[in-house]
Amino acid sequence: MGVAVSGWRLARAVSVTGQLGVVSGTAIGVVLARRLQDGDPGGNMRRALASFPDQAVASRILERYFRADGRQGDRPYRAVPVPRWRSNRQFLELTVAGSFTEVFLAKEGHTGQVGINLLEKIQMPTLPALYGAMLAGVDWVLMGAGIPVHIPPALTELAAHRPATIPLTVTGAESSDDFQLHFDPAATIATTGASLPVPRFLAIVSSNVLAAHLARSEEGRPWGFVVERPTAGGHNAPPRGRLTLSEHGEPVYGPRDEIDLAQLRELGLPFWLAGGYGNPQRLREAQEHGACGVQVGTAFALCEESGLAPELKARAREQAAHGILEVRTDPSASPTGYPFKVARLAGTAANPLADPARRRRRCDLGYLTVPYRRESGQLGYRCPAEPEDDYVSKGGDPADIDGRLCLCNGLMAAAGMPQSRTGSGVEPPLLTLGDDIHGVLAALSPDGRPYHAADVVSHLLAG
Questions:
Q1: Nearest Cα to Cα of residue 271 among 211, 321, 319, 330
Q2: In this predicted structure, what is the pLDDT of residue 347?
């Protein structure tokens, strides 16, 4: 759904119904820092940090970011450290604490199950984010957008408070290079005690080949799969084979992009289906094909408990009710090169009537930067959505720049935490939803009225 959309409030609301509520772990350190700078209404962040295992770390974070009176006017958010191969201690502490806080609040006051979702493609924050979630007792880990074969053994090491290592993908790396991401819990957080429970790991896949590869792995075998179709919101797997665009400029998916569910069943692992399954009939179909259930995003993204800015949710529901909300699979919006679903809503970064020049290119959050090997053997970092001259000077292909949007800043703005900049105003939001938005809201909010997470669950189970 994006950054902080499936936040602790939404995950908790789903979990108390008996289903699996999942928090987003993307840029979770930035989310914590900005909530604190907004004054922490309700005191939720501070209450969670009061239970953090290392109170010295919690105190440093509060001292650096908490503003009792919130931000005044257009005062910008304080910058946070960006992800790097060898991230500094401040970044690691903030990421661990952010992940802990989100899961702690999602699990507070009930016995339901809570998971955390991370993108394999965003590698540098992965290990500290996992560890923070595990300190809070996360029950499940979901990860896609890559081949997450190294995550199960990392979870085992982190559960024992031992150092964990995963490989870092580096553009231009040579065979003699050994770029590894290493995280030592004891070097970041002062924590002692018994081993932590190892959460169940679900790999998000979109092909039988990847599912079979992961299922055969001795160390990286997941507990099960989430099988995501290209109709789902957010990032989609690119079509297999040569890229073909429709008359509307969207990627064309064909038979090669369909998952053979019979083959998937033969792997003997539980699976859930995602992408267009937000109604009772599709849930029944999934179960008839052997799935344990479905994963739903879009219906929850526009409910009252989601982390989307309230005004943005209201406008999206209203426009969907009038049949004028368009969701487009944009082949170039994401700096990752993966197709990305964008809702064309007025006032957002994806508004087709907006002037693209009104936002000055910049890269100050850095979660989608790609590490590349310099001639010296050192690492550099570049992103197709950063200033064009900067990207090209780092060896980036100019052809990669056209149409790229800053997902980091746009998705953060959609969650009600837009950066404000002197001379260039406030960051515009970027809203991502699935292709089934109109069908979903026809049942849940035909007139654009608000609804709750429990209404979504009741609707899905009604059949």
A1: 211
A2: 82
Distances from the Cα of 372 to the Cαs of 12, 156, 176, 376, 431, in angstroms? 39, 29, 15, 11, 29
Gap between the Cα atoms of 325 and 319, Å rounded: 5
pLDDT in tens, 106-165: 999 999 999 999 999 899 999 999 999 999 999 999 998 778 889 999 999 999 999 999
C-alpha 240, offset from chain centre: 23
Q: How many CB atoms lie within 10 A of CB 120?
A: 19
pLDDT tens digit string along 13-62?
999 999 999 999 999 999 999 999 999 999 999 999 999 999 999 999 99
The angle subtended at Cα 29 by Cα 26 and Cα 33, nearest 5°, is 130
Per-residue pLDDT at 352: 53
Q: Provide φ and ψ at 97, rounded to 5°.
A: -65, -40
Tokens read off for 245: 């665009």
Q: How big is the chain, counted in residues? A: 463
Is 100:57 a contact under the CB 8 Å cutoff?
no
- The span from the first CA to the last CA of the chain, in angstroms, equals 25
Whether 101 and 12 have beta carbons less than 8 Å apart is answered as no
Pairwise CA distance, residues 192 & 161, whole Å:
8
Tell me: domain 8-461, CATH 3.20.20.70, correct? yes
Alpha-carbon span 14 to 20, nearest angstrom: 6
The tokens describing 350, both together, are 């994806």
Predicted local distance difference test score (pLDDT) of residue 312: 94
The amino acid occupying position 389 is D
Rounded to 5 degrees, φ, ψ at 294 are -135, 160
